[in-house]
Design brief:
8 helices; 10-stranded mixed beta sheet; alpha+beta; 3 domains; Archaeosine Trna-guanine Transglycosylase, Chain: A, domain 4; Pseudouridine synthase
Length: 302
């Protein structure tokens, strides 16, 4: 039996609604889990909806590794308007008719933003500059430019195009897209850069994250569903690790050594990513990395 104030060791896959911050979701889960030890893997903006992976107790130590996995988004990009935030929540700063933009031009622009690219994050991101959040500097009217950084966009597909007229009378084009990308990729920045390349400006009007690594919307619950029966919807830490990482089952002797941080011969999988280790009883023991043929413990969970 757990001590009072100690929540379940596991992940909660939340289908975040629009209009609230990821921090607000974490606060709700803390209350439901009965513990302060709760965190999340990968922030979603208030406008965005979809998969937010939340960890409780020991599972919080998985989050840093889960945050590095590929993420999938469904989004709508509006061509023809630029905003200060690169999304629909910010003030429109420029408008240019986009109805003459061809599908071929869009395809060429998308191709330039696919693969290994250098991306300048949105200025209203949570990135710190000299210890201060970028968005805070924007609010104070400071002018600056964030450095570009490498990201990988493995899929950037346009599914639909809709010609429309914005509130200010500008002829705009809305594109429904799917993006698979590495950690640290800003979909708002993709919208901004696609619009800039096409010469008409662009911003994001809708964003839904459908997958973080192994965890998709099929495993996600709304906050209302979690309020109804929280403990039944927690993914136990062993199941969470087995779903997200390659699995290595060890014998009792290996399990004892790994649990005490001793380096032993690795499984020989030849992988650069963490590997989840399980003992003969199926308990999740640790995450390890193979280095020089040896298993180096990244985090021990027993």
């Amino acid at each position: 039996m757990k001590r009072k104030g100690i929540g379940p060791d596991g992940l909660v896959i939340v289908d975040k609604p629009a209009g609230i911050t990821s921090h607000t979701v974490v606060a709700r889960i803390r209350r439901l889990a009965g513990t302060r030890k709760v965190g999340h893997a990968g922030t979603l903006d208030p406008m965005a909806t979809g998969v937010l992976v939340v960890g409780s107790e020991k599972a919080t130590r998985l989050l840093g590794h889960l945050a590095l996995t590929t993420k999938t988004y469904e989004a709508t990009i509006r061509l023809g308007q630029t905003t200060i935030t690169d999304d629909a929540e910010g003030e429109v700063t420029a408008s240019t008719a986009a109805d003459a933009v061809t599908d071929a031009a869009v395809a060429a622009g998308v191709a330039k933003l696919t693969g290994a690219i250098l991306q300048v994050p949105s200025s209203v991101s949570a990135i710190k500059i000299d210890g201060k959040r970028s968005y805070a500097r924007v609010r104070e009217g400071e002018e600056f430019e964030l450095p570009s950084r490498p990201v990988t966009v493995s899929r950037f597909e346009v599914h639909a195009r809709r010609d429309a007229v914005a509130e200010d009378g500008t002829a705009v084009v809305d594109l429904d897209v799917t993006v698979d990308c590495s950690s640290g990729t800003y979909i708002r920045a993709l919208a901004r850069d696609l619009g800039a390349d096409l010469g008409v400006g662009g911003h994001l009007t809708a964003l839904r994250r459908t997958r973080v690594g192994a965890y998709g919307l099929d495993l996600a619950y709304t906050l209302e569903e979690l309020e109804d029966a929280f403990t039944e919807k927690v993914l136990p830490i062993a199941a969470a690790a087995a779903a997200a990482f390659p699995r290595w089952d060890v014998d009792e002797k290996q399990a004892r050594l790994i649990a005490t941080g001793v380096r032993i011969d690795g499984p020989g999988m030849g992988l650069s990513e963490p590997i989840a280790v399980f003992d003969p009883e199926g308990r999740f023991l640790a995450l390890i990395e193979e280095q020089g043929g040896k298993a180096k413990s990244v985090a021990v969970f027993v």
